[in-house]
Each structure stands twice: as structure tokens, then as C-alpha cells.
Amino acid sequence: MRTVGVEEELLLVHPDSGDPKALAAAVLARAAQDDPGQEVFEKELFGQMLEFATHPQSDMTALGEEIVRCRKEAARHAGEIGCAVAALATSPLPVSPSLTVNERYEWLAERYGVGTRDQLVCGCHVHVSVESDEEGVAVLDRIRPWLPVLTAISANSPFWQGRDSGYASYRSRVWERWPSAGPTELFETPERYHRRVADMVDTGVILDEKMVYFDARLSARYPTVEIRVSDVSLCARTPVLIATLARGLVETAARDWRAGRPPLEHSVNLLRMASWQAAREGVDGKLLDPVTLRPRPAAEVLRALLEHTADALADHGDTAGAEQGVEELLRSGNGARVQRGLMERTGSLRDVVTECVRLTQD
Predict the structure, then answer these.
(1) CB neighbours (10 Å) of residue 68?
(2) Is the Cβ–Cβ distance between 184 and 215 less than 8 Å?
(3) What tens digit of pLDDT does each residue of 342-353 get?
(4) Around Cβ 53, how many Cβ atoms within 10 Å?
(5) Quick one: which of 33, 45, 38, 35 has its CA closest to 9?
(6) Could you tell me which CATH number the domain at 4-360 has?
(7) Which reaction(s) are listed as its catalytic activity (predicted)?
(8) Structure pTM?
């Protein structure tokens, strides 16, 4: 059974005002004081962000429990120094990001200028185990058109610098500003994949292999495919759903490859449009159907994803959880819908943030 691990980035905020606070170093110091050997929490590009990573899990219930535990631990460490954590992919309130003191991050700031300053965004990355680079590249080629659906499910960034952005996932639009980000063409072989990565580094436009920000890539650290298209989700159940569907996609793609079924040959141009549409609409409008790349109601596309991965979900014992998760999402909405509902009821972005602090640990 394939294992799955999740990385989440959280926003550090003032517990009363909701303003982002650059206190990541203090939170990490508190975490290290409580557990000198801790490797769960890490710094990120800006001081207003905190990242954690789960262990690889084969059971989705265990994965969900670990995500909740990590969120609660992050909240406890933050609370001890007078701040809070919010699973928000962008700050609803205006913010001036504070760059983390780090040689790599300083290089990014100098190289990309104001583009770096805009990257105070919080994502969720899912790692799914693969047996080899050959299998991994075959998977990357076959999951491409389905990745925007995961963006739509996770969408949790409707507000930007104090205003409604008009998008469900504005984080994904900001992230696309990196020169190496976005969907990819077909690679076909590991040799072509690694050659493409090496060529990108050799241009000097990016610093190194870690900066290859494909929507999905081979992990440089683990024997996994790393899927990088999701916002951090407000509800802790949503990353479990995304991880479940991601594992289903990877397993389905691997089986298709072994059976000799070729990947869909969609162009990168159309895949970018599918990503844009998912970021704009989330689960409340139309998405581009991953097979036809024509508009289709989001609910139908989500159910098509369940159908596409049905055999893999069943073999992993994930069918009921995935189906229930999708139906609950369609009924209750993703983080973007929740945030906009809070804003409509309260009229205050500060109230939106403080309520999201509470929802982060539910």
C-alpha cells in the first residue's frame, strides 16, 4: 500500500486583531525547548509562516489524527508566545512580509525583487510513495489534467491585502509568478525529466533543483511524487481528502502505465487555463473537465475524479472516506466559501481571521 505524507504551512497571527505576526523563530525556539529533537516544525520564507510535516502514513485515519495533532501543537507553541496559528492560504488583512534571515531566502529576495515579497502564501504539499523514478515520471505524465481539481477542492485564499481577490484560490495565482512554477509537458522517461530539471538550473534563472516548482514533481529527498497544487485548508479533514484522492490518482496512473495506456496529450497552455479556472471558481462554479478540457459543473468533475480513481480507492479501503469527503465539501464548501460567508455575516476581515483561528483546530 502506498504511503502518504502531508506538509502544511500555517499563518501566524495576533489572536485578537488577526494581524500576521513575524514570530516563527520564537515559535520554533519554544518547540525546540519542549522537544529538543523535534523535526516536525520548520521555518519558511517569511517570519509569519510556520511549516509542519507528517510522517508517511498508509492509513488515512492515522494521517488525519497526525494533522490535527500537529495543528494543535503548533497552536500551543504559538500561544505560549502570544500569537495563534490560522490555516489560511493568504492573509485576509494587509501585511508587510518579514523575510526569514537565511542565505537562500536572501538570494531569492535579491534575485526576484518584489515578486518574492508577494509570496506570503501557505500551501499544502502531498507526498505519495512510488517504486522508482520510472514509475514516478509515468505518474507525473498521467495525473497532470487532474491536478486543478485538487486546487479547487483546497481553495482557501479569497482575500488579498484587505480586499476580495475575486478568486477562490488567489494563492495559486501568486505562486504561478515563480518562473519555474506550473503544469508541465509530458516527460516520458526519467532521463528526460532529469535533463529538463538540469537545463532549468543551468539557465541561472533559478538557484537549484529545489526551486523546480512544478505542480507535481519527483521529490529530491524522498521516493515520492510530490503534489504541490493545494492551498492549506481551513478544515483539517480537507487535507485528508486531498491526500486520499492524490494517492488514488497516483495508483491509477501507475496502473495505467503498466497496462500500456498512454497519458492524455493536453498542451501546457490548456492545462494553465484549467488551473486558472480552478483558482477562480473553486467548487462553486464550473471547472474544465480533465478529459475534454471543456467547462463542466464542479460537482460533476469531482464525482468524475472519484470514478476515475474508483478501483484504486477501493483497493486502499478509501472509497467511503473519499465519497463522504467530496459530498461534505460540496455541501459545506471549501475554505474560500467559509471565509466569504464569515465576511458576509460579520463585515470584518479581522473577525474572519479570528474565527479561522478557531476553525483551524476543529
Answers:
(1) 16
(2) yes
(3) 999 999 999 999
(4) 17
(5) 45
(6) 3.30.590.20
(7) L-cysteine + L-glutamate + ATP = gamma-L-glutamyl-L-cysteine + ADP + phosphate + H(+)
(8) 0.97
Q: Cell digits for 131?
A: 517504486
Q: What per-residue confidence (pLDDT) applies to 7?
A: 98
Average pLDDT over residues 315-322: 97
SS3 string, the chain, reads: CCCEEEEEEEEEECCCCCCECCCHHHHHHHHHHHCCCCCCEEECCECCEEEEECCCECCHHHHHHHHHHHHHHHHHHHHCCCCEEECCCCCCCCCCCCECCCHHHHHHHHHHCHHHHCCCCCEEEEEEECCCHHHHHHHHHHHHHHHHHHHHHHCCECEECCEECCCCEHHHHHHCCCCCCECCCCCCCHHHHHHHHHHHHHCCCCCCHHHCCECEEECCCCCEEEEEEEECCCCCHHHHHHHHHHHHHHHHHHHHHHCCCCCCCCCHHHHHHHHHHHHHHCCCCEEECCCCCCEEEHHHHHHHHHHHCHHHHHHCCCHHHHHHHHHHHHHHCCHHHHHHHHHHHHCCHHHHHHHHHHHHCC
Locate 299 and state its grid cell.
460537482
Q: Are 241 and 322 in contact (CB under 8 A)?
A: yes
Tens digits of per-residue pLDDT, 243-268? 999 999 999 999 999 999 999 999 99
Could you tell me which of 328, 240, 250, 269 has the C-alpha nearest to residue 54? Answer: 240
All three cell numbers of 55, joined, read 510522517
Residue 2 C-alpha cell reads as 502506498
Q: How far apart are CA 5 and CA 102, in angstroms?
A: 26
Geometric angle at alpha carbon 138, from 180 and 174, rounded to 5°? 25
For residues 157, 162, 166, 171, the Cα torsion angle rounded to the nearest 10 degrees is -30
Residues 6+ apart with CB under 8 A from 198: none
* Beta-carbon contacts of residue 212 (< 8 Å; ≥ 6 apart): 180, 197, 200, 201, 206
Q: pLDDT tens-digit profile of 154-198? A: 999 999 999 999 999 999 999 999 999 999 999 999 999 999 999
Q: Would you place residue 57 in the very low, low, confident or very high pLDDT band (cuts 50, 70, 90)?
A: very high
- Say how far apart CA 287 and CA 292 lie, in whole Å: 11
C-alpha cell at 212: 523546480
Residue type, 56: P
